[in-house]
Specification:
Radius of gyration: 14 Å
Number of strands: 5
CATH class: Alpha Beta
CATH superfamily: 5'-nuclease
Largest sheet: 3 strands, parallel
Number of domains: 1
Shape: globular
Distance between the termini: 16 Å
Number of helices: 6
Structural class: mainly alpha
Helix content: 40-55%
CATH architecture: 3-Layer(aba) Sandwich
Strand content: 5-15%
Strand order of the largest sheet: 1-4-5
């Protein structure tokens, strides 16, 4: 498990969505590996927010969704700042992504990650030293 790993919200959501079939099982297994890593994975406040709201949309009680988000907040968390927003805009323009994906790239870069686990970007894509891996494949 790379110590320089950043995990996007969709992987977290699948690990908690029992109706997601094989994606649930794979995400759960991969996150268990991440928990066992020598270094904690990185996430951002944006990831925690998206994770929480998606669990709520799935019908998970607020207290349970909050508790799960708090658990992941024990990893390295990149805070939302104006500087990060500006970097996200720069990444969006450079790579022609959505603003939200640009912000994920910026947060991963800010965390010093070289690997980004996500299902939202192209598998194998290299964003200037940040490589996308879909851990559900």
């Amino acid at each position: 498990m790379p110590a320089d790993l950043f995990i996007d919200s969709n992987i977290l959501v699948y690990a908690h969505d029992r109706d997601a079939g094989t994606k649930h099982e794979k995400a759960k297994q991969r996150l268990e590996e991440a928990w066992q890593g020598a270094e904690p994975a990185s996430i951002s406040v944006q990831v925690l927010q998206e994770f929480f709201i998606n669990l709520a949309r799935l019908g998970v009680p607020v207290a349970e969704a909050r508790s799960a988000a708090r658990d992941y907040a024990s990893w390295r968390v990149v805070e939302n700042t104006v500087s990060l927003m500006e970097s996200g805009i720069d990444e969006m323009a450079r790579w022609q992504t959505s603003f939200w994906d640009g912000l994920i790239i910026a947060a991963a870069r800010h965390a010093g990650a070289t690997t980004l686990w996500t299902e939202d970007l192209n598998e194998g894509q290299d964003y200037g030293g940040l490589r996308v891996v879909n851990p559900l494949r």
